[in-house]
Design brief:
The chain is of the alpha/beta class. It is built from 14 helices and twelve strands. It has helices at about 10-25, 40-45, 65-85, 100-110, 140-170, 180-185, 230-235, 255-270, 295-300, 310-320, 335-345, 360-370, 370-385, 390-395, and strands at about 1-5, 30-35, 50-55, 95, 115-120, 190-195, 210-215, 240-245, 270-275, 290, 305-310, 325. A seven-stranded parallel beta sheet has the order 3-2-1-4-5-6-7, with helices on both faces. A five-stranded parallel beta sheet has the order 10-9-8-11-12, with helices on both faces.
């Protein structure tokens, strides 16, 4: 079967699909991953075909205000829609669509008569169990959570409205609003597989048929990849260190975060591995090592705890390794995942990025490393996650 996976966003929004694609390829399918050019090396390393999608434009000085943010997002997804239409080969047998690409891909699939399956990294369907992932972590009660969930979908529809209109016009399809396509898919019980663990988010009982939680899709790691000699030497030189990294978040805060991380580690009496990431963290000393990109699957089982921004992929990787966490959420769905980690006891209460200090981080580090309840909860979740087979669930859905 010729399968096209479409994903857009940050590294955490794309990397899981390299593992999913590699698993499908190993099962005998011809797999292409369409995403932005920045991730072409990840795609090709996984042995997948690559198709280019437009990148989100850089906004000098940042976007100010919700209205401007909405306008910028709408302009980007319009461009993304046209790029999507160019990327899909008419001979494709199946489209696997991410959360961000589904509102566009469904229209391309209609025009080309290609079946689709949703492959989401976040829960987006309204439920009484919790509020929408992008609207905070405070429960509004079952009815309130469902109402808020429907409101969040309407806000998403607004972002995609212009893009859908332009895309359907290009594809010679009759007019249809994003909400109309969404209702059509719901009535048909269109399958959507969610690539996160039920250890963190059990499947809501009030979801419609066709919505399933199947377990994470892990970023591809080549069999011959190893930790560098520098990292191995540091790990061997003393007690297990703490990992501190913010992924693609916190750009422009590198100097402050670097100083803060070192102060917190030394105040807590711990060694640390600091990942540079987009923020450009950097620290030197016998008790701290700065690294670049390293597969989480290789490093996290070797550390005492993980300080991270609570992106869905990093949160899952730490949990898979049985490593307790300190979550420092920055934006979007990160507060949701941070709260879920704390709820199962595998992390301390989240420290919002805006209120992060060396003192707060040091206190949390002391508790998460020395109180074994956090590590035990993480280990329980890790054993549960080991029973999940996200790739196998997708293969089963293919029939």
């Amino acid at each position: 079967m010729r399968i096209l996976i479409a994903a857009a966003g940050s590294r955490g929004d794309v990397a899981p699909y390299t593992g999913l694609g590699a698993g499908l390829r190993e099962a005998g399918h011809d797999v292409t991953l369409a995403t932005t050019d920045a991730f072409a090396p990840l795609v090709r390393e996984a042995g997948l075909r690559f198709r280019s999608l437009p990148s989100r434009p850089h906004v000098p000085g940042g976007v100010q205000g919700r209205r401007e943010l909405m306008r910028t997002a709408a302009a980007f997804v319009t461009e993304l829609g046209h790029g999507f239409a160019d990327a899909v080969d008419p001979g494709t047998d199946l489209l696997l669509l991410s959360t961000t690409t589904a509102p566009l891909g469904l229209h391309v699939a209609e025009a080309m008569r290609i079946p689709t399956i949703g492959a989401y990294l976040q829960p987006t369907a309204p439920t009484g169990d919790f509020p929408p992932t992008v609207m905070g972590t405070h429960s509004l009660g079952r009815l309130g959570n469902r109402i808020a969930g429907r409101f969040a979908l309407r806000m998403t529809d607004r972002v995609y409205a212009e893009a859908v209109t332009a895309l359907r016009r290009r594809l010679a399809l009759p007019p249809l609003r994003p909400s109309g396509m969404r209702r059509r898919q719901e009535r048909a019980n269109r399958p959507v597989l969610h690539g996160f663990s039920t250890a963190l988010v059990p499947r809501p009982s009030d979801w419609r048929p066709g919505l399933d939680v199947v377990g994470p899709w892990w970023p591809y790691v080549a069999p011959n990849v190893r930790l560098s000699a520098e990292v191995e030497d540091f790990l061997a030189a003393g007690p297990r260190p703490v990992f501190i990294g913010f992924g693609s978040m916190a750009a422009g805060h590198g100097e402050r975060l670097s100083e803060l991380a070192v102060r917190a580690l030394r105040r807590a009496g711990l060694r640390g591995i600091v990942q540079a990431g987009s923020a450009g963290l950097a620290a030197d000393g016998d008790d701290v090592l700065t690294i670049g990109d390293v597969p989480h699957a290789l490093l996290f089982p070797r550390v005492a705890a993980v300080v991270h921004h609570a992106g869905a992929g990093t949160a899952a990787a730490a949990l898979r390794a049985g490593a307790p966490a300190i979550a420092v959420p920055v934006t979007a769905d990160q507060p949701f995942w941070a709260a879920r980690l704390a709820a199962i006891g595998a992390a301390t209460d989240p420290i919002p990025f805006a209120s992060l200090t060396a003192e707060r981080l040091a206190d949390a580090l002391g508790r998460v490393v020395r109180q074994q309840t956090y590590a035990r909860a993480a280990s329980v979740a890790a054993r549960h996650m080991a029973t999940e087979d996200g790739v196998g669930a997708v293969l089963k859905a293919l029939g």
